[in-house]
Fold:
Amino acid sequence: MRQLILVRHAKAVPAGAQIADFDRPLADQGRIDAPVMAQGLVIAGAAPQLALVSTARRCRETWAAMESSFAGVQTRFIDEFYDAAAETLLEEAEASGVERVLVVAHNPGLHELAARFAHRNSPLDQQLRAKLPPAGSALFERKDETASWKLIAYFMPERS
Structure:
């Protein structure tokens, strides 16, 4: 069974003149939300072999807060994931050579990719198509390369 796990970075400090967008750290709320989302994914059956993570600080910190929930996961940091389009994220995940991959990246590309795969009209699919907030996480599965991705679980922080 193939898995694609999409995670938007957790809540970061607001953008401002004092710090470049790429270097924004997680806010206190983001540090709380990230491990909670990881536990939800684990309970739903997420078992990534590889994490592909944007090199932006908020993504690296999100993954650091989640990583201990996923035993034995290899990590690859990818510069091109900063502000990446959906196609870039998908191409890198598909080229990873593993069956179960987790992606930590940014909107709008990440949400566009998630919405593309949330194509059924279930309430869960509709909810994901509507928004992917900070720390929002989605687990997709498919049987093989010819099958469509199916949304298995979608998590977002309670206040979102």
